[in-house]
Amino acid sequence: RRPRRTLASTGPILDARARLEEERSALQAIVEGVERAEAERRDASEAVVAFLERRRAEKALIVAAPLAFSIPVGGRSEFDAMVVDEAMRLIFEDRARVDGELAAGAAAAANLEAEKL
Fold first, then answer.
1. Which DSSP symbol is given to 74?
2. Do residues 83 and 68 touch, judged by C-beta distance below 8 A?
3. What is the C-alpha separation between 31 and 47, in angstroms, rounded?
4. How far is residue 96 from each of residues 5, 8, 53, 75, 113, measured CA to CA in Å?
């Protein structure tokens, strides 16, 4: 028989889940911001550059991103398109990682919530 967890021991797990959900929301906001910006022909580089800096992406990518994201989709050179594609790949990669961590912890979090009741 498994020892019952105390409320004190469940706090870190619930905190980690909340942190992951916040991170997922932030990543989704960047993706949606880029999509809206492209549709409205606005520059979405500020949020993307902030993400790349937090992610510690290659300096060349961070430096190239503002110009690449400021150019409308149809006017991007091959290099600009590559910069945008790589930045978005990193965003989607992080979002997939967070989704995986959330899915892995979903059952544990549900059990902890049930134990609190």
1. G
2. yes
3. 9
4. 30, 30, 19, 29, 25
Strand intervals (E) in the chain: none
**Strand (E) or helix (H) holding 71:** none
Where do we find the tokens 């290659």?
58
Question: What pTM did the predictor assign?
Answer: 0.73
Q: Which of 84, 85, 56, 53 is nearest to 68 (CA)?
A: 84
Rounded to a whole number of angstroms, the distance between the first and last alpha carbons of the chain is 20
d(CA 79, CA 94): 23
Cα–Cα distance for residue pair 68/89, rounded to 1 Å: 15
Query: In a structure prediction context, what are the per-residue pLDDT tens digits for the chain, which is 117 residues long?
Result: 555 555 455 677 778 888 999 999 999 998 988 888 777 666 678 889 999 999 999 999 999 999 998 888 889 999 999 999 999 999 999 999 999 998 887 777 677 777 766
